[in-house]
Specification:
The protein is globular, with a radius of gyration of 20 Å. With 326 residues, the protein is an alpha/beta fold.
Length: 326
């Protein structure tokens, strides 16, 4: 075997590895025997139980038991104010393990990073060390949860926001693993577009930390409107779920069937902080603490927003035809 041929084999292998690693990692999570799936959605929560975090967790436990949930989705800003210091930061136990103690919440948690998480050791939250400490925890930058009934595409939205790179102010962001911003975002969009195009799931949900549309404190995220939204519209996404604004919201896209759902009220909320402009498609806004539940079947989706007392504030019902093969 010649050296040049051996070298070409090595290069081919490396390229294959790189190509495979570029694809979004997929985690199977089977639906129930009846084909249904239920989960809770929570964002912007990790404050060692303060700002009503513990009260929200208590109500999550009750709703989780009622719905017999399959897992929990976290929309990011998992630990305040500046993420985790390292893998051994006791904030992980104080804000997560010791707070979400209800039996119904002892299920898998699928989490993305928020901008506050990037202000600490972002890679600590991705570490298997945390999963060793609490097996519920699974946090990655971008990945897919696949139950066949639904595919949930988790997207790392923080690197999209130019302000964090150009005007970080007094904050420091942990960009390890990101590299130059533009190639990272472009590659992520390509991987997402490919995965969405190949999806045959009945329901398609995208989860990110930042809102595409919001009337809350931060408002719309222009970078996501320009770069992410067209891909979602072109691929028949049903729901985009996010945190970032510390509120609960439901906004309908005016150009597609996409429903924008904000669940960022896991602890500290911003009372009265609502923007008067661009309220097109606004169906619901609540400026207190709470969370969201999702129940899916082959034909129906039911989404409910709860306050800190467990009251249902808003309900969204969506239906699809059940197509039978001829």
């Amino acid at each position: 075997m010649s050296i040049s041929f051996l070298f070409s084999l090595i290069i081919t292998y490396v390229l294959c590895v790189l190509s495979a690693s570029a694809q979004l990692q997929r985690f199977p999570h089977p639906s129930r025997h009846d084909g249904s799936l239920s989960f809770l959605v929570l964002g912007d929560w990790g404050r060692r139980g303060s700002y009503n975090q513990s009260q929200v967790a208590f109500q999550m436990g009750k709703v989780g038991e009622k719905l017999d949930i399959d897992f929990v989705v976290s929309t990011g800003d998992n630990f305040y104010d500046n993420g985790l210091i390292n893998e051994l930061d006791n904030a992980f136990e104080e804000s997560f393990t010791k707070i979400y103690t209800a039996k119904s919440l002892q299920k898998q948690w699928y989490s993305v990073l928020g901008n506050h998480d990037y202000r600490g050791d972002a890679e600590a939250q991705l570490s298997p060390v945390l999963r060793g400490m609490d097996s519920r925890w699974l946090c990655l930058r971008s990945f897919i949860v696949d139950s066949e009934l639904v595919e949930i595409f988790f997207v790392d939205t923080t690197p999209f926001v130019q302000e964090y790179f150009a005007e970080p102010q007094e904050h420091k962001y942990d960009w390890r693993g990101i590299g130059p911003q533009k190639p990272y975002v472009n590659n992520l969009l390509k991987d997402l577009e490919l995965a969405l195009g190949e999806s045959t799931a009945k329901w398609k949900i995208v989860v990110g930390h930042h809102a595409i549309r919001s009337v809350g404190h931060h408002g719309d995220t222009q970078e996501l409107i320009e770069k992410l939204l067209p891909i979602l519209q072109a691929n028949n996404i049903d729901f985009y779920m996010n945190g970032h604004d510390h509120c609960l919201e439901h906004i309908s896209d005016t150009e597609s069937p996409i429903q924008f759902l904000t669940s960022g009220a896991g602890s500290k909320a911003w009372r009265g902080d609502i923007k008067p402009m661009n309220r097109r498609g606004l169906n619901f806004f609540y400026d207190g603490q709470g969370f969201m539940s999702v129940k899916l079947t082959q034909t129906d989706a039911t989404i409910e927003f709860y306050d800190v007392f467990g009251n249902v504030l808003h309900r969204l019902a969506s239906s699809k035809q059940l197509h039978s093969s001829s």
